[in-house]
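User: For a benchmark we're assembling, each entry needs the component sequences followed by a predicted structure for the full assembly. Here are entry 17's components. Please fill in the structure.
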Amino acid sequence: MNLQFVADGVLTGAMIGLGAIGVTLTYSILRFANFAQGEFIAWGAYFALLVATALGWLAGGSSTPIGPFSFGWGLMLALIVAMPLTGALALGLDWALFARLREKASSITIVIASFGASMALRSLLEFLFTSRPAYFTRELQIAIRLGWGVRATPDQMALVGLTAILVLALHVLLSRTQIGRSMRAVSENPALARVAGVDVDQVVRVTWLLGGALACASGVMVGLTVQIRPFMGFDLLLPLFAAAILGGIGSVPGALVGGLIVGVAEAAAAATVGAQWRAGVAFVLLIAMLLIRPTGLFGARE
Amino acid sequence: MRELVAGYEPGVPIVNGASLTVAAGEIVAVLGPNGAGKSTLIKAIAGVAPIRSGAVFLGDEEITRLPAHRMVREGLAFVPQTENVFTGMSVEDNLRLAAGILPSDKRTRRIAEIYRFFPDLARQRRLLAGRLSGGQRQMAAIARALIAAPRVLMLDEPSAGLSPKLVEGVFARLAEIRASGVAIVLVEQNARAALAIADRGLILVEGRNRHEGRAAELWGDARVAALYLGGARA
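Assistant: Structure for entry 17:
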């Protein structure tokens, strides 16, 4: 049996996992399902594209690829700039919309508001950049043989490595730092966190920044391996939620593992029954998990 | 705290004009029948329940309606009755979280001091707080509140769900904390245990002060004991 689908699935899963971490963080801290998370992925990719283009223009042309990769230092710098920009976009959306609803509206109202925000952000992208696909690079890459019939391009391997670094950094932040402990405390019991001296508003701000920044990384990965389109985040929305629920909503490692499972399952479906069934796999996994174990793989039981 | 009116719904006060003063190194027990507004009273002071009118002072400074996390920084700590530790975090992380309001160079030293005061917790520092027994969990909650070296410590029914022996242990610790100069407000159903360590008592009925005085006097008043302390002396 050809195991190529595993390599393809791990890459897709890494992109889904990073986006799903944003979904799961927002849910556990703010207690609502944010359907605008997909748009942060698309906006993150476009922010990086803008910065990379500007840097290329300043450097007098597109940046030279590094070693075996299809991208240069310009894109790496663009990612570093675009991540806080996307975090700021998420923070701005919270300030303009969600924060005003949090005090007085029910969580279902906030969820519907996130649907509206999602459509508005997507339409704005389409208005600004048109629906024509854009690319970070048009360099061709030769896949490297990894063994057992599996091949991967250097870009794909770098992106899986980037995911590992980001998830490790997030793990250290959550487990070893004061703001991480505060986030875990607010996630478990916001009222107790307040009387323990935690500034919950600050935790909310950090959550949006992190969720936006990780969505941006996911968007750049999608843009680098597929293409950049205004609908790229919306297309990932169902896999994002499937991954977050599969891993256990509220669990950061769960979101990543859920993303990898969804990614590998989608790639397996594409390799066996046909690519047209790929999108249905996330939905089937989501329903199956909700029926068998609603708390997900790593979720705490109520 | 002066003529406090507090409640979750506008126009439906649970605390209805209650007043309370507690001095440094003193324990005041707040007692009364179910629904008297005892828990809402200290939740309102702590910034967790909405205050409709009245004023809360810490020393000369008015702190009415400060957000709960600011209250802690001002020196007012609160231990809720239930869900008073973060069960998904280790004992150490519970303490480190609370130590976050201290300057970073003082946190480790303060946690070491707290461990010396609660040696059982030091032995279980790596254990998830959710796996502690009821008595240990109550100690962890009090330790969490003490980390910030508060001037006032407020506890909501610390004896709830504990065996008499454990209650004795928790209250013995409260007496030691009082000796260090901390003012303690103790909301209790267990009037016998509370009045045994308290200096003064306040009996709250329908959100208002009904009786107050020295703990021994309240304990000695047969009519008060029969009406409001559930015949606690019996």
